[in-house]
Amino acid sequence: MKKLHLISIAISAALISSPAFSAKVIPFQSAISEETFQTEIVNRALIELGHEVDSIKEVDYAVAYKQISQEAQSETINFMTVNWDPLHGAMYDKVGGDDVFFRQGKYVEGCAQGYLIDKKTADKYNIKYINDLKDPKIAKLFDHDGDGKADLAGCNPGWGCEKVIEHQLDVFGLRDTIKHNQGQYSAIISETITNFKQDKPILYYTWTPYWVSGILKPGQDTTWLQVTRSAHPVTKSTELSNGANYGFNVNTMRIVANKSVAKNHPDVATLFSIMSVSVNDVSAQNQLIKDGQSTPADIKRHVDSWIKAHQETFDGWIAQAKAAK
Predict the structure, then answer these.
(1) Can you list the domains of the chain with their CATH numbers?
(2) How far apart are CA 290 and CA 284, in angstroms?
(3) Least C-beta-crowded within 10 Å: which of 59, 75, 146, 224?
(4) With 0-12 CB in 10 A as exposed, 13-18 as middle and 19+ as buried, what is 198?
(5) Cβ of 220: how many Cβ atoms within 10 Å?
């Protein structure tokens, strides 16, 4: 009997130390504070599963993909919740793609992006396409620094969207009439909002979920511009099923992790595959950040509130993940 007891203890100890149980977790994201909400919801679920979650590492997307890919065989769990698919396709594939990453499920769907102008100018001059700004007279309407070119509030280098914009400026022959302003997006878009409030024409790039569309409301304050044909450096077509074409694909934010997660931590692999958050919920939280609720304590409170409002769903995730062990 004593021997059987010792065997039981040994088996229990082996199971507890197995990679399928507790593990160290390293979450990655960019320095965009509006991504923290999505990351922290996942962190909270991982803690519920008994894993040890480190503080979030804020790095450029390309760095995150590289570091996660280098841990392809590691027992440590490395992940990022903001794999924009297909926008980040080139960065994802460059370091190994599906051979080194675990990526299943769709975390946040319906993430639109593209070019917008103020509705007043769009209606007055019948502007429907970014291609319309090839006309110097139309482009000059959006000139704020006197160089004769339209000032486009653009995309930060390293985000992926900047490559699409740069590609389309070349393909559509817009270099002579549009200037792509890059830098700190938050500062550039704040200036754009100020210009709008001063009743000046505006041209900008943005995406959803993000707080900008809560201030510059598409359809009310602003209008999405389309492109006359697909021209994207990653995907063949950006045309929607209804025939509209905004130059960018509607993206999905997906959770991406090191490949070994599937083998070593089936609970986490299941969790990453089934988690899903509404794009509208993310936008609403982003607006709270814009309104000044941006401290770690604020974001923790936002996560607490979201989980409480979706407790049954959250508990369901945990139950399914535990069952996968």
Answers:
(1) 23-109+252-324 (3.40.190.10), 113-224 (3.40.190.100)
(2) 10
(3) 146
(4) exposed
(5) 8
Helix ranges, 172-219 (H):
185-197, 212-215
Rg over CA atoms, the chain? 23
Find where tokens 């599937």 sit.
Answer: 262
Residue 243, phi-psi category: left (phi > 0), alpha (psi -120 to 50), beta (remainder): left
Three-class DSSP category at 235: coil
SS3 42: helix
Q: What is the pLDDT of residues 82-125, one digit of tens each?
A: 999 999 999 999 999 999 999 999 999 999 999 999 999 999 99
- Can you give the pTM of this predicted structure? 0.86
Q: From start to end of 241-288, where are the E strands?
A: 251-258
As a whole number of angstroms, the distance between CA 311 and CA 69 comes to 33
What type of residue is 67?
Q
Q: For the chain, where are the E strands, in sequence order? A: 24-29, 52-53, 57-58, 77-85, 101-102, 108-111, 113-118, 150-153, 178-181, 203-207, 222-224, 251-258
Residue 207 Cα to chain centre, angstroms? 9
Number of Cβ atoms within 10 Å of the Cβ of 99: 10
Look at residues 219, 216, 204 and name the one whose alpha carbon lies nearest to residue 287. 216
